[in-house]
Write a structure and sequence with these properties.
With 261 residues, the chain is an alpha/beta fold. The chain contains eight helices and eleven strands. The chain has helices spanning 26-43, 65-81, 95-105, 130-139, 166-175, 194-203, 219-223, 247-260, and strands spanning 6-12, 47-51, 86-89, 109-112, 119-121, 124-126, 146-150, 156-157, 180-183, 208-210, 228-231. The strands form two sheets. An eight-stranded parallel beta barrel has the order 1-2-3-4-7-9-10-11, surrounded by five helices. Helix 1 (26-43) packs parallel to helix 2 (65-81). The longest helix is centred in the first third of the chain and has 18 residues, at 26-43. The radius of gyration is 17 Å and the shape is globular. The chain starts with 5 loop residues before the first strand and ends with a helix.
Length: 261
């Protein structure tokens, strides 16, 4: 998937089987996912990413077979209801599971947490996994699937890497063969620092994406300094990730983006 001022819309999948908030009806989850995929397609979004955001509290790097099976079915529903590029993230940091789903369903990319440097996340200590992940990608024949990697992962403490700047972290991800880096704010929905994004972009040869905090009011500033924007919260009713997708908000932002680019 080529990235050039690309807008990626998030589908925050409702809580899946086995997680505390699962409501017991997988069919309703699939119906909701299909509806949101169609809303994005109709609004002219460039790509879709699916994520098991409602599966709180998250496990650290490992998920059960029920989550992998569910996300495979969810991904297939998106593919069946749109012709858009699609990616997947499985929380928290279950990057090999995401890659396996992407390969089976025919997705275009995964979003990977904890690719380089250790993180102290709210799930606990998370070691970097670039070596294992890209070897696994090679072994299963999934090299055509892009791995876009968060740097200085949100919802994490970075005291142990405080002497490593965001730019140097991004350079490390590039050195470790990331296909693109994702810069975020400190938590879901929080804005990322534009000056830092510009510095990362200046120092890398791979794509730079923004992964949180993009809104209708600031989208033009981010478009100037990156290759792609991953937008979730602002597309929801009231601008909060827990709410349903708002058709009008998606159309409003895409109309503005199309006028800008």
């Amino acid at each position: 998937m080529q990235l050039e001022q690309t807008i990626i819309g998030m589908i925050h999948v409702p809580a899946l089987p086995g997680t505390p908030r699962y409501a017991g009806q997988m069919s309703k989850i699939l119906q909701k996912v299909a509806e949101e995929a169609k809303i994005y397609q109709a609004a002219g979004i460039d790509a879709i990413a699916i994520e098991n955001m409602h599966d709180v509290p998250y496990l650290n790097r490992a998920v059960g077979p029920e989550i992998i099976a569910s996300m495979t079915q969810v991904a297939q529903v998106v593919k069946d209801n749109t012709d858009l590029p699609c990616g997947i993230q499985i929380l928290a940091g279950a990057n090999q599971a995401a890659l396996a789903v992407a390969l089976v369903v025919g997705l275009d990319f995964i979003r990977a947490e904890g690719f380089v440097f250790s993180h102290i996340a709210d799930e606990g200590s998370m070691q970097s996994d670039a070596g294992e992940l890209l070897r696994y990608r090679k072994q299963i024949g999934a090299e055509h699937i892009a791995v876009y990697t968060d740097i200085k992962k949100k919802h994490s403490a970075h005291a142990i890497t405080d002497d490593v700047s965001l730019v140097e972290t991004a350079k490390a991800a590039q050195f470790f063969l990331s296909d693109g880096v994702i810069v975020t704010g400190a938590s879901t929905g929080e804005t990322a620092d534009i000056a830092q994004i510009a510095a990362v972009k200046k120092n890398l040869k791979i794509p730079v994406l923004v992964g949180s905090g993009v809104t209708f009011d600031n989208v033009e500033h981010y478009l100037l300094h990156c290759d792609g924007l991953i937008i979730g919260s602002w597309f929801k009713k009231g601008g909060h990730w827990t709410q349903d997708l708002d058709r009008q908000r998606v159309k409003q932002l895409m109309d503005k983006v199309n006028a800008l680019r």
